[in-house]
């Protein structure tokens, strides 16, 4: 049998990189609101999240301090156009491009902005004063502006909806959008299908249970009803969230998009740990149960009864209790964390593949990184170690990297951690091949950074 050539070996290694992704745990997103006077700085929030399993955040504006704080962290961001700015952006592509130029462009690629949420529950928040046509036009204008800058494949445009956009949500198979919203929803879903953007829904079984405790089972609302609830078309639902997702799916199909691909993202879902007097559902125990199961659901590759093979991206609501939010007590108590970084209740957020070993807290990180015009390639903080091992073997083998510095007695041997060794090798490969962005992809495990990752006696090469 003929010997394997170097080029064949490269192919086999990268084929393995592709196929080994089948076992990777899905990422989990979280909503980061800032309506509080006791919250930590965005820099400390970024440090906290790097030590958790959350690898995506959604914010409710385009706060430059937050965007700067999350640069070079490997955490993806969804930024937002506030409801009161939608009308302006709907006026034309130039207005949309001006917004992009001021709010997004200065922070990329160091900050990984992957989507823009145009408004929040725009169609149901204030229908007497917000024009639904403005929403559709603003989304299209932003997409056109992104396309003109060559950013439309990296940054998607969408809008989050409340469950109130549905005429009814049960049975899921018979669900449709509210009659008055059908023209707007037809335009929005068509746009999402054309651009490959997700349909975002804010889904809260908590509210359904709180308002109908006599007809909704607490176990069903808390994502754990083993007995199941039956749909008229034969589907069985073991939790309300899946039923809500499929209700949205049915409404999309009812619009005539059954033969188009429109992924569904749960842009908000959570459970409060405290409510007003008499609210027996809002307890720390129920919040822990729901959010623990929600995180487990987000990490799995399970779909829903209607689409069992469709992965559902989920963003937990919320990161912090926000003491300046208006409304009833629950609005201020959806957070997993208090402002001082302590947990409101005990929920496992440990990250197996975090570079700092999963230690959580708001302590400042020590670093020797310095800003400069150079650029480096390192491993993402949440990269799967099995993938990183294959990357390391490739770089130090057929990739042609001189890896003696990460061998024992080498200047970069310590710390003896796979993440550190892979980062050194990935950067060397990246620099060797001209610092093209595709040379730092490594099947999604690489991250381009503008901060020098060198430390102590370990020096990362530059072009």
Automatic annotation (TrEMBL):
<feature type="domain" description="X8">
    <location>
        <begin position="375"/>
        <end position="460"/>
    </location>
</feature>
<dbReference type="InterPro" id="IPR012946">
    <property type="entry name" value="X8"/>
</dbReference>
<keyword id="KW-0964">Secreted</keyword>
<dbReference type="InterPro" id="IPR044965">
    <property type="entry name" value="Glyco_hydro_17_plant"/>
</dbReference>
<dbReference type="InterPro" id="IPR017853">
    <property type="entry name" value="GH"/>
</dbReference>
<keyword id="KW-1015">Disulfide bond</keyword>
<comment type="similarity">
    <text>Belongs to the glycosyl hydrolase 17 family.</text>
</comment>
<dbReference type="GO" id="GO:0005975">
    <property type="term" value="P:carbohydrate metabolic process"/>
</dbReference>
<dbReference type="Pfam" id="PF00332">
    <property type="entry name" value="Glyco_hydro_17"/>
</dbReference>
<dbReference type="Pfam" id="PF07983">
    <property type="entry name" value="X8"/>
</dbReference>
<dbReference type="GO" id="GO:0005576">
    <property type="term" value="C:extracellular region"/>
</dbReference>
<protein>
    <recommendedName>
        <fullName>glucan endo-1,3-beta-D-glucosidase</fullName>
        <ecNumber>3.2.1.39</ecNumber>
    </recommendedName>
</protein>
<dbReference type="GO" id="GO:0042973">
    <property type="term" value="F:glucan endo-1,3-beta-D-glucosidase activity"/>
</dbReference>
<keyword id="KW-0732">Signal</keyword>
<feature type="signal peptide">
    <location>
        <begin position="1"/>
        <end position="22"/>
    </location>
</feature>
<keyword id="KW-0378">Hydrolase</keyword>
<keyword id="KW-0326">Glycosidase</keyword>
<dbReference type="InterPro" id="IPR000490">
    <property type="entry name" value="Glyco_hydro_17"/>
</dbReference>
């Amino acid at each position: 049998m003929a010997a394997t050539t170097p080029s064949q070996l490269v192919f086999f290694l990268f084929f393995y990189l592709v196929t080994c992704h089948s076992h990777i745990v899905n990422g989990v997103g979280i909503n980061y609101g800032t309506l509080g006077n006791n919250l930590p700085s965005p820099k400390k929030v970024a440090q906290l999240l790097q030590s958790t399993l959350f690898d995506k955040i959604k914010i409710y504006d385009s706060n430059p301090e937050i965007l700067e704080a999350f640069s070079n962290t490997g955490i993806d961001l969804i930024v937002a156009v506030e409801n009161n700015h939608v009308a302006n952006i709907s006026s034309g592509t130039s207005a949309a491009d001006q917004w992009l130029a001021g709010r997004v462009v200065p922070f990329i690629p160091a900050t990984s902005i992957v989507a823009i949420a145009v408004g929040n529950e725009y169609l149901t928040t204030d229908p007497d004063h917000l024009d639904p046509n403005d929403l559709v036009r603003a989304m299209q204008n932003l997409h056109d502006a992104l396309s003109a800058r060559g950013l439309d494949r990296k940054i998607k445009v969408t809008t989050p909806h409340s469950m109130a956009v549905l005429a009814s949500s049960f049975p899921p198979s018979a669900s449709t959008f509210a009659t008055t919203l059908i023209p707007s929803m037809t335009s929005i879903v068509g746009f999402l299908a054309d651009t490959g953007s997700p349909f975002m829904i804010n889904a809260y079984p908590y509210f359904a249970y709180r308002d109908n405790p006599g007809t909704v089972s607490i176990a069903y609302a808390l994502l754990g009803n083993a007995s199941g609830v039956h749909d008229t078309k034969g589907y069985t639902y073991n939790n309300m969230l899946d039923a809500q997702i499929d209700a949205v799916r049915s409404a999309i199909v009812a619009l005539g998009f059954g033969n188009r691909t429109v992924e569904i993202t749960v842009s908000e879902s959570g459970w409060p740990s405290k409510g007003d007097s008499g609210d027996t559902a809002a307890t720390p125990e129920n919040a822990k149960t729901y959010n623990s199961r929600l995180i487990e659901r987000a990490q799995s590759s399970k779909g829903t009864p209607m689409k069992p093979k469709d992965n559902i991206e989920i963003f937990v609501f919320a990161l912090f209790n926000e003491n300046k939010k208006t409304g009833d007590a629950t609005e201020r108590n959806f957070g997993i964390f208090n402002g001082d970084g302590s947990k409101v209740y005990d929920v496992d957020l440990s990250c197996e593949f975090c570079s700092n070993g999963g230690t959580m807290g708001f302590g400042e990180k020590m670093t020797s990184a310095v800003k400069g015009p150079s650029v480096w390639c390192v491993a993402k903080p949440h990269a799967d170690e099995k993938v990183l091992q294959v990357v390391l073997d490739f770089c130090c083998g057929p990739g042609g990297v001189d890896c003696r510095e990460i061998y024992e007695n080498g200047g970069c041997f310590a710390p003896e951690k796979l993440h550190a060794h892979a980062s050194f090798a990935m950067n060397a490969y990246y620099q060797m091949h001209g610092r093209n962005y595709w040379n730092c992809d490594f099947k999604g495990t690489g991250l381009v950074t503008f901060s020098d990752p060198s430390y102590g006696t370990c020096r990362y090469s530059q072009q």
